[in-house]
Write a structure and sequence with these properties.
The chain is α/β, with parallel strands linked by helices and about 325 residues long. About 35% of the residues lie in helices and about 20% in strands. The radius of gyration is 20 Å and the shape is globular. The chain starts with a strand and ends in a 10-residue tail after the last helix.
């Protein structure tokens, strides 16, 4: 019998993309609620407890309410909201995080899907903290730009309405972004970074950047030390790749005569994939480096990650339905 999967909140941006990745699969069965009964607690309770796996694509409070409706201990849950990312009893759904994380997800019944910005930030920083190149107490900043789809239906409608003209919109100016706790916790930091997110006038895709003053780090590591530690952390991974020295040198030199603009570093480059590409750029004379992550905010940053976690939890091929 095929495992039954219920997406609670399948009409939202993330839910729609998860459904798209799952609906042609022959190794599982998607079950859906009657649209007229989406807000009926008993109808939802029935489906939530009858499924083998549930993916919650809901606001935080609604996700907590859904969990409270589940009394079948056999049901496996993936929560795509922020509600449980640093909660006790939940496994963080980033299989490439560290040795053993993939196995922990596979045996878990409660998995918190990572946020899109934290996926890029943690992927860049954790290997360097783990290798002792960046101290846990080091003050870091992270600059990032995402497509407007990350803001959900409201922001999508706002950017796509007739007459909308803003090309770039910084936000999170209260310095209390909901992604900060998981950034610090899973990167292994004592303090949250200073986070400067922004939305651009394009639908999907993102770049996350962490500038690093090499001169301020203990031992003053070289750029290649950072790249080597990152490459070792993700060696053999299917969905996370680190640009090698030759590629980064080529990119750095590609447009040096025109101000250094690098067209290849496009936030939309990995759209519709579950890929995450990491870069380490540096100037060892100036003793500075820039760490960059490129990913699809709706792919490895949301829906793709949820499908990858689902595959692991159900004992299916990890890359099924993904590219």
């Amino acid at each position: 019998m095929l495992p039954k999967v219920f997406i609670d909140g399948e009409a939202g941006t993330t839910g729609l993309q998860i459904r798209e990745r799952l609906e042609s699969r022959r190794d599982l069965e998607l079950v859906s609620i009657d649209p007229a009964r989406r807000k009926d607690p008993e109808a939802r309770r029935s489906l939530l407890n009858a499924a083998d796996a549930v993916i919650l694509c809901l606001p935080d409070e609604a996700a907590r309410e859904a969990i409270a409706l589940i009394d079948n201990p056999a049901v496996k849950v993936i929560d795509a909201s922020t509600a449980h990312r640093v909660a006790d009893g939940w496994t963080y759904g980033f299989p490439e995080l560290r040795a053993g994380q993939r196995a922990a997800i596979a045996r878990a019944t409660r998995v918190a899907n990572p946020g899109c910005y934290p996926t890029g930030f943690i992927a860049l920083v954790r290997p360097l903290v783990h290798a002792g190149l960046i101290p846990a107490g080091f003050p870091l900043t992270v600059n990032a730009v995402s497509g407007y789809s990350g803001g959900g239906k409201g922001l999508i409608a706002e950017f796509e309405q007739e007459g909308a003209t803003d090309a770039f919109r910084p936000y999170g100016l209260t310095l209390q972004h909901k992604h900060l706790p998981e950034m610090a916790a899973y990167a292994g930091l004592d303090h949250a970074p200073v986070f400067a997110p922004a939305v651009g006038r394009y639908a999907q895709g993102m770049i996350v950047e962490v500038p690093v003053p090499l001169w301020a780090l203990p031992g003053e590591p070289a750029t290649e030390d950072l790249r080597a530690a990152m490459a070792a952390a993700y060696d053999g991974e299917r969905f996370v790749a680190v640009a090698d020295t030759a590629e980064t040198d080529r990119l750095q030199a590609a447009r040096a005569g025109a101000g250094g603009h690098v067209a290849e570093l496009d936030p939309e480059a990995l759209n519709d994939t579950n890929q995450l590409k990491l870069y380490v750029f540096g100037n060892d004379t100036a003793r500075q480096a820039r760490l960059l992550a490129v990913l699809d905010n709706l792919g490895k940053g949301a829906s793709g990650a949820a499908v990858q976690n689902l595959n692991l939890m159900l004992g299916l091929e990890e890359g099924a339905g993904l590219r």
